[in-house]
Write the structure tokens for this entry.
Amino acid sequence: MTFFRFSFLFFVTEILNNLMTIETRIKQKKFKNNAEKAIVNIAYTQSYFSLKINTVLKTYNISSQQFNVLRIIKGQHPRPVSIGGITSRMIDKMSNTSRLISRLEKKDLVQRVNNPFDGRQINVFLTLRGTRILKKLNALVDSVVNDHSHLSEEELIELNRLLDKIRIE
């Protein structure tokens, strides 16, 4: 009976593990090689997390790019940050930072201020409302992160190391 129970649990575990593979998720049986499989898996996982995070950000009518801008500005506080400084730190390098800041300004989340030392440069700051909203958004995003805390600290370190290594910028 014990052997049967162990065999059954092993079988169920194997089925559950196989259900989570990229092949099962996208209904593809084979890849050309492991490099192609890894790139497809990264793209699929990025899309998966984007959906999860965008879902929680939607409650405040904030896009992931706008959230990224808010976090960049908060990360520079109390120092001012220019539009160029924000652009250089963006996750999505194709984002139109000026347009994003305009939208955040309309929502009273950020404020543009002319740089007193360089008239060509504009600094961006979080408003009090922006700071409050960002705090709430961070809590929502933290809940998504916490829902996916099934990797050990060592696995997360290794995952980050490999992700850093794969980029050949």
